[in-house]
Amino acid sequence: MKKWLPYLLPVLLPAGVILSCNGPGKRFNQPVTSALALDSTTLGISTVAEGLNVPWEICWGPDGHIWFTEQSGTVSKIDPVTGEKQLLLTIPEVYRHRSLGLLGMAVHPTEPYVYLDYTHRNPDSSIVSRLVRYTRGNDTLTDPKILLEFPGNTGHNGSRVIIGPDGKVYFSTGDAAHDEFAGDTAKLNGKVLRLNADGSVPADNPYPGNYMWSRGHRNIQGIAFTNNGQLFASEHGDATDDELNHIQKAAYYAWPHIEGFADRADEKAYADTFPFTPPVMAWTPTIAPAGIDYYNHSAIRDWQNTILLGTLKGASLHVIRLNDARDSVLDEKIYFTQQFGRIRDICVSPEGDIYLATSNRDWNPGKGFPIPADDRIIRLSPIRDTKGLTILPGPAAAPATPVAKGPAIYKSYCEACHKADGKGVPGSFPALDQSKVVTGKPEALLHILLNGSKSSATEQMPAFQFLSDDDIAAAATHIRSSWGNKADAVAPEAVKSLRKPAK
Length: 503
Prior knowledge:
- By secondary structure, the chain is mainly β.
- 12% of the residues lie in helices and 31% in strands.
- The chain contains 8 helices and 28 strands.
- The chain has a 6-stranded mixed β-sheet, with no helix packed on it.
- A hairpin with a 5-residue loop joins β3 and β4.
- The termini are far apart.
């Protein structure tokens, strides 16, 4: 319901009336604090709710409220006009750790059901993911029924739930940090699954008796239908190639054998043997794409027929324009970089307002966050009067001055985990400042950069073999000379001598 309800419930307005925070039409109690000027529309920016505990999913409810999950295990709703919050459900069996917890949610538009996805830890310490259906009453969620339970992990659990135009439940799952699960037709991990409302397998699924709709996914973080029924999903890559995929029936997306497009020799060889569906977009350096929604409302004409995508590492909103058939990408613009911090999810109201959920109190906040008001639900709504408002900059532009290679590579590939100050994330990503691995003989650091590290379930680092010898040497030199580290520079020849021959 979240993604296509705005098109099932159109709002007809008199000519010239704009629903806004400070103009004619609906008036919200929350003040507009800043604005974004587009070519034909100005968006007022206001905070609908603050002090939330990582709102992971936000969707427009049948009662005109914003329904949302919080990663700690609660489901609530907020009146977007007054900001009044109402708790609907607490799930004590949710296991919250790092990126785990209460994640996706979908409210069925024609059945009295709400579908929730969360991680749970069993008495034997094994982690599972669950898809659970609740019955929706008058401000209550009751009668939980576990529809699916399958392996989880300390990461790569996905996931999103959405109701399709056909009334079916579409559920994206992560590979649970087991690469081999993604392509395995017998596993539920690394897939987009399709279920009937009661949890049974639809008769017209591509594989009889199997929930699988598509396979070969690493870790889908956003899912949305367009107004003509095209399905898109955002997906986390490893060291490279975050993806936006056009999800098709029975399609194979080839993780872990192909990352993004088949542009390496080994990937091209694999694609010749196992045909796959490439993404419609891929990002290297990675941006950590999160929730997405489709926008086609006349309230913001500049953004009609676009996928709105929030990012975590990129801390920005990507507006991705589609072609008329809604099956490929024409262009992309980026807004709000570092303005609100990490953007976890997005929803669109029937009036064409856009709501963003921040994710700054999760396990890996960016520099300068969280702020005291985090986490927030922020509204973007067309306005007419900008008097007294701070006007935010438009789409992100290329840096005015070039950045030295070492710091630039570190920022693109390392900073999200090891942080700008080199102190890492305790219990997840090791500190680089004063690290013996960093300041000792360069071979130890170069080995990790080239081959990655999987020393534990929580400290995994991808291999950066795809970077050139010069790039790895520059990054290593930057790391060995920053944050009080005082180690010698690394030459490209040292990297070349340690590099494994290409397969």
